[in-house]
Amino acid sequence: MCVDEFGPLSIQPFSGCGWYPKSRPDRLPATYRGTHGVRHLFAALDLKADKLYGHVSSSKKHQDILRFLKVLRRRYHRSERLYVVLDNFSPHKHRTVTEWAAENNVELVFTPTQASWLNRIKSHFAPLRSFVLRGSNYPNHEALATAIRSYLRWRNKHSRHARLLREQKKIKVV
Asked: Domain named Tc1-like transposase DDE: which ranges (predicted)?
């Protein structure tokens, strides 16, 4: 499993393109007020099944990461060792996370420092950005989370779609 966070996700208009009636384009507001706070997407890529899993959270503390890892652990038989590839974000290395992993047959594998791009899930964030965020203006975080969940379901059914594969090549190294 490859695990990483995507975000922060804020409620703001994102520019993009779309199909609109001639001379009636969809207009995005020029300004927005950031009163909604931000959310973070915890995402996991199952390399064996080529499936994406995700959970939207209001924070990205070690408790949130641990909660997400527990959900992933429940997807697999207890006797099956789970290898989780992570970057060196400090909450990933928190004592409670590492102790839980040792007790639950989960091995945390960390990418080298300054090389988080080696985590294969990074290539799946460009399509997410393209399909969910580009050209959007969500009214609230629930609508954004619903769109993300809808994309993840679509992606798991169409993992070899040509446009999806093109977008995966657009890795943004931060």
From this structure: 2-144
- β-partners of residue 42 are 5, 55
C-alpha distances (whole Å) from 135 to each of 68, 72, 128, 143 are 29, 31, 12, 14
What does pTM read for this prediction? 0.79
In total, how many domains does the chain have? 1
pLDDT band at 44 (very low <50, low <70, confident <90, very high): very high
On whether the CB atoms of residues 87 and 116 are closer than 8 A, the answer is yes
The CATH number for 61's domain is 3.30.420.10
Hey, is 122 helix, strand or coil? Answer: helix
48: containing domain: 2-8+40-168
**Integer angstrom CA distances of residue 147 from 70, 89, 92, 100:** 24, 27, 27, 32
- Here the tokens at position 83 are 């290898």
Instruction: Name the nearest CA neighbour of 135 among 35, 36, 19.
Output: 19
Of 122, 124, 114, give the one whose Cα is nearest residue 158. 124
| Structure-token pair, residue 69 | 């890892």
